[in-house]
């Protein structure tokens, strides 16, 4: 089916959806009417174990969903998903598999890649992480001056820290190992200097995370951190571990520090939270058992994702609605608004996951995409977001929203009831009312008080923010992301779009090195704009 | 000019700009050609004291700029700006002035509102802040058990904390008063519980910030915090100050705590960083003198903004380019990417400032807007953003970017030069190359390595991140925001879009109170969707 020349936008069902979208713009399909249909919630919501997905306030009807399921079939998404989960080299441009789901597989079944079962290596790394984190927690393993480790500095950028940051924030309430976690990602020296003011070097353990061990920012930061530890009279390499590919420069001798944990080229950075990339820091921060339960939650959603038929498949339904909103209703952005402060770093993680995976311009068979793939993802927790940018959502430029609610908070509720309700109840009153207000709107004589409504949203509910539920949430967004890609027929696992900037930066670095080593080197051969910036950098100030 | 019925989209110059935008889509106006024009940078950049604004990589020509200046004249923006700065009631729907610029005025000139000089009150609050912060810093004023204050908890939401958070992060390097700053904004109890684990109650000072002193979240959090302090055996009111309107419930007796600092109804929340809203916490965190220098920087940009003619007026030029990108070239989002970790909270602040101010659907004279006002603002610091969502920027859905560069970092540079360059030089190599790569693109046989280019960006340069320069940056974005509103002819100072959600939440709160006080109260009279959510909240779990 999805062979040479295939473009989803040329299929009959795409055309039918285009026509249907015109139909759906009619006043009778305004959300204020749709939500009043009897059985609306029952018909437009799904539940799998502890994960509830409500799309009753999306601008869809049964016909919409039928067409979207036809679209999914046309794009052959179930076959593609299985191919991914079973170790085929679905990342065709890089000739790699995409086996993040294997990172949380616990079944005795093999997962074969090039005829070799990958589960052996994965299990070995898991056992290594467990043993290592136990040694740190029980004080068997200490810093070079004998102090127990209390500070963890994750040195890594992009996919090497965003997911870990999300999960660590989400599970702060469980972080009872006496560890503080810091993220040294940005090559900007302010990032390093700020962390320096917060750590005690003798009790600091650095985790240097880079698949290739050549990532410029990470290498620069690792070097800076090691120099600092040495300057404090410490044996720096006894304060470092590495997470890297087998055979990388960080996997050998001196550079590997106390221990090396392998990551694999079949798990991409932005999908690597459940591998050693997340496993090492999260196990140190939360304890290995909680990391394990986090994996279990993710695993459960993986199984659902692989086997549930389209109409019951939560990540697939949500991917289809995303595409409906984007390509047919014309929304170019998507907000992620968790009504839960611990999920404050969910949006930055999903931002990378989605925008890097699906911001593509060619199909997997190298045909120009003529439809738009990828949307802008942004978000802040509610109720904060209501007091920030929701004005635009209600009365300005509309954008679809994922609301996320948590039935029970992590901490027991206080007895304060300022307006007769607990803070958690207040939070929920807002969660419920925002989705309603956006959907239903309000007529008013006064134009400033008129609300057009018809603004779509979904609501995800979790019973609580346990490690397993955070794992479910992560796996849900990962699966939604790849299903979108499978529908668009793009490769969500490469990222060539970051290459051009790197190439130009390499050239500029050479210019800077030349000037660093030779005061007489000038930039007159460069284009006028570049020259100006390089001159400012060396002058240390703006022109008078 | 801008009288009844006026709509900017009906003016001849709007039509000319529409036509011109079509012209600009021609291949010869691709940015790769525009940036090579001789004198491009000199002709398409502006500087005012220590603020440099480069728009050479925006998709504009001299003709574009001429038309945009004509648009500014048509919208009569200079008159509107002066009316605002001189105390006229430009916030017509609420019959209020918008005098955030007065908060940083130091001239002896009066600013009259209703015939009364507002500067007296403003000066008095400033003196009060100075005296108060000195008393805290020198230990004259202490907690109820005699401990010096070491923890500041800002209790406020939206405009009551986002700007302070941005500035406090930006100036962390200057925070030498031994104070830690915490933000209790979200009504979610996790926010409170997390802060509880980080503070020492005896040395904690709370700043409760709410203009009306009725903001639901803030009142709930203040009550919770006071109950906690009391439960620790402390006299809670000796650990609290308030920032509120004269005569509000927080301005009286018991509720006001140690001291009340007035805020004024002529300064809106999202524009209030330079008032007592930012002044009290920032003076405690950084010392009053640094807050004062921050005000000075903002003031300098205000003067430039008020008096500079259109072609030299940096905030106006940037507002015009924003509208050009949004209404004429069709970009619906705008990223803010500071190449400076300390500016990591700039984007959330600008997100509120812009999206709440300009996400409107009616003109100031109550005519329906038929053009879109307001864009989605998002962003993370570079280089982090490069490793997160820049794939979409380069090869997917394009969006204009504000890059921000800082010539000299706050900390002296380390001697580490991993690739022959310092970390700060590496940061700049990336800053320069991203803007170039986006603008110029790259041809390639291989489609996955093809970069279309023609992606617009501006670059702002500051000499350093001093308090004054952070003030300049703030005032620049404030002025850009109001200039955009003046061109669209909307009121950027109201926010009726947040009202509907509040009204519905009020109704739901009553339902929750009824159930809290009467177990027999059920939700059968509610619509099916609302009922489901309320039942889940009380059941404490998802349905089986």
TrEMBL record, chains A, B:
Transmembrane segments: none
Keyword Nucleotidyltransferase: no
Pfam families, alphabetized: PGI
InterPro entries: G6P_Isomerase, G6P_Isomerase_C, Phosphoglucose_isomerase_CS, SIS_dom_sf, SIS_PGI_1, SIS_PGI_2
Family membership noted in the UniProt record: Belongs to the GPI family.
Record's keyword terms, sorted: Cytoplasm, Gluconeogenesis, Glycolysis, Isomerase
Pathway connected to this protein: Carbohydrate degradation; glycolysis; D-glyceraldehyde 3-phosphate and glycerone phosphate from D-glucose: step 2/4; Carbohydrate biosynthesis; gluconeogenesis
Keyword check for Cytoplasm: yes
EC number: 5.3.1.9
Name assigned to this protein: Glucose-6-phosphate isomerase
Localization terms from the record: Cytoplasm
Gene Ontology molecular function terms on file: isomerase activity
Main location: cytoplasm
Gene3D superfamilies: 1.10.1390.10, Glucose-6-phosphate isomerase like protein, domain 1
Recorded catalytic activity of this chain's protein: alpha-D-glucose 6-phosphate = beta-D-fructose 6-phosphate
Function according to Swiss-Prot or TrEMBL: Catalyzes the reversible isomerization of glucose-6-phosphate to fructose-6-phosphate.
Active site positions: 356 (proton donor), 387, 502
């Amino acid at each position: 089916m999805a062979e040479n020349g295939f473009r989803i936008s040329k299929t009959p069902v795409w055309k039918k959806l285009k026509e249907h979208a015109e139909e759906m713009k009619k006043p009778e399909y305004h959300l204020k009417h749709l939500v009043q249909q009897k059985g609306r919630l029952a018909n437009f919501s799904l539940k799998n174990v502890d994960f509830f997905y409500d799309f009753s306030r999306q601008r869809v009807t049964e016909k919409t969903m039928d067409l979207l399921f036809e679209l999914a079939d046309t794009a052959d998404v179930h076959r593609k998903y299985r191919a991914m989960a079973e170790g085929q080299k679905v990342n065709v441009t890089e000739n790699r598999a995409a086996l993040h789901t294997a990172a949380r597989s616990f079944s005795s079944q093999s997962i074969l890649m090039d005829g070799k079962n990958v589960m052996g290596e994965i299990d070995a790394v898991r056992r290594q992480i467990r043993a290592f984190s136990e040694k740190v927690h029980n004080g068997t393993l200490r810093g070079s001056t004998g102090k127990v480790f209390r500070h963890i500095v994750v040195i890594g950028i992009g996919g090497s820290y965003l997911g870990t940051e999300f999960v660590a924030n989400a599970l702060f309430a469980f972080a009872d190992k006496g560890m503080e976690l810091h993220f040294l990602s940005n090559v900007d020296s302010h990032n390093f200097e700020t962390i320096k003011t917060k750590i005690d070097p003798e009790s600091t353990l650095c985790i240097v995370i880079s698949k290739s061990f050549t990532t410029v920012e990470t290498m620069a930061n690792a070097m800076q951190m090691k120099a600092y530890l040495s300057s404090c009279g410490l044996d720096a390499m006894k304060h470092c571990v590495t997470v890297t590919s087998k055979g990388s420069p960080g996997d050998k001798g001196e550079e590997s520090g106390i221990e090396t944990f392998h990551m694999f080229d079949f798990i991409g950075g932005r999908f690597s939270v459940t591998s050693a990339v997340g496993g090492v820091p999260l196990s140190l921060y939360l304890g290995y058992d909680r990391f394990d339960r986090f994996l279990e939650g993710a695993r459960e959603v993986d199984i659902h994702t692989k086997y549930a038929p389209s109409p019951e498949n939560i990540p697939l339904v949500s991917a289809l609605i995303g595409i409906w909103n984007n390509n047919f209703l014309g929304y170019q952005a998507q907000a992620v608004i968790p009504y839960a402060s611990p999920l404050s770093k969910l949006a930055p993680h999903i931002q990378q996951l989605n925008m890097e995976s699906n911001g593509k311009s060619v199909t997997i068979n190298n045909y120009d995409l003529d439809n738009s793939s990828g949307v802008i993802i942004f978000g802040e927790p509610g109720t904060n977001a209501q007091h920030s940018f929701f004005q635009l959502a209600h009365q300005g430029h509309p954008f679809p929203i994922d609301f996320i609610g948590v039935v029970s908070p992590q901490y027991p509720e206080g007895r304060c009831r300022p307006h007769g309700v607990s803070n958690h109840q207040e939070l929920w009153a807002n969660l419920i009312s925002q989705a309603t207000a956006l959907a239903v709107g309000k007529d008013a004589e006064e134009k400033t008080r008129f609300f057009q409504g018809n603004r779509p949203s979904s609501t995800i509910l979790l019973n609580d923010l346990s490690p397993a539920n955070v794992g479910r949430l992560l796996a849900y967004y990962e699966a939604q992301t790849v299903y979108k890609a499978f529908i668009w027929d793009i490769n969500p696992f490469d990222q060539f779009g970051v290459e051009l900037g790197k190439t130009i930066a390499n050239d500029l670095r050479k210019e800077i090195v030349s000037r660093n080593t030779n005061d007489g080197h000038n930039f007159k051969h460069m284009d006028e704009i570049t020259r100006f910036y390089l001159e400012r950098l060396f002058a240390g100030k703006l022109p008078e």
